[in-house]
Predict the structure.
Amino acid sequence: MEDEPDFALTCRSYPEHEGFTVTWAMDARAGTSILYESRVDLAVLDLGLPDGSGLELLRALRSTSRLPVIVVTGRGAETDRVAGLEIGADDYLVKPFSQRELVARIRAVLRRSQPPEVPSVLRIGSLRIDAAARQASADGVLLTLRPKEYALWEMLGEAPGRVFSTEQVLERIWGASWQQPATAIEHVYRLRGKLAAPPTPAPHGSLRGVACHTPVGRPTAVTG
């Protein structure tokens, strides 16, 4: 989003030459329509738009989306840079800058925003999770898991050792953090029973308030 046509044209030409598809909006209203109605991978946002503050647009965007955003502006004061980054900008460029630097920063932000690759088959001791087939097994024996139980086990298996809050689990597994914490606790206990086996040392994942270890044997769940 850039209100200066000549500068916008310059900012379009080099990224397009490097293989990016660029859509230009000259004000906040047009930019908002593009962001919410089109598939966009990254936004380059000028703070000085003619019909509103770029910072306010960024704040509104961050309330509903984690779309990568690079803030571009003529304001070089530290307070402006800090404000943009604290609201949620992923990077900050102060005019003037080279188009090669713009493209380099676009690529860097896109790389950082990509989720880490998860292998199609996860193995933790004798436990095996086949993401493609959505199946889990222990010692070669297929486990009968409900969809939410499988999703919980897959989530913990993808990040051994990471501590998840109850809200994070409810958001990912149920798609809403307003579910009762007891919902997550109940599924942890249920999963523990289905994965019962002699415990051996292995990585673990955990929930704040609900600790769920993911070793070869059963997860150990506690509330607190």
Helices lie at 5-17, 28-37, 54-62, 78-87, 99-113, 147-158, 166-174, 181-194. The first strand starts at residue 43 and ends at 46.
